[in-house]
Write a structure and sequence with these properties.
The structure is a single chain. This protein has about 100 residues and is mainly alpha-helical. The chain has one domain. It is about 40% helix and about 5% strand. The chain has three helices and two strands, in the order H-E-E-H-H. Helix 1 packs antiparallel against helix 3. It starts with a helix and ends in an 8-residue tail after the last helix.
């Protein structure tokens, strides 16, 4: 697979996983509505673009290395994940389409 095709696929997957304007989040077990999360990028998702929290050893390691949760319930995204997703898409758009390149006026 070419680098361009790989980048195109990565961008398409990131956009498909992004939480839509209604704030609807699909999980394997339920559908959540979190309007405040609209536009965010989920921390974890599966091949069907559903939010899937970590489990097992990954969950244990994450819990041991992370701060305690700030909120009760499903925490689908955080500002760091969303900033990273946004930065990736801005960089992709610049490289792929020569649009919105930082510092290019």
């Amino acid at each position: 697979m070419s680098r361009q095709r790989y980048a195109d696929n990565a961008a398409a997957q990131a956009i498909a996983a992004q939480i839509g304007s209604a704030g609807t989040i699909r999980t394997p077990a339920a559908t959540l509505v979190r309007p405040v999360q609209a536009g965010a990028f989920p921390s974890y998702w599966d091949a069907e673009h559903r939010f899937v929290p970590t489990s097992g050893l990954t969950e244990w390691a994450t819990d041991m290395l992370s701060m305690p949760p700030e909120y009760a319930g499903a925490v689908v995204s955080d500002s760091e994940t969303t900033f990273d997703g946004y930065a990736f898409l801005v960089t992709y758009r610049c490289a792929r389409f020569d649009l919105g390149c930082p510092g290019m006026g």
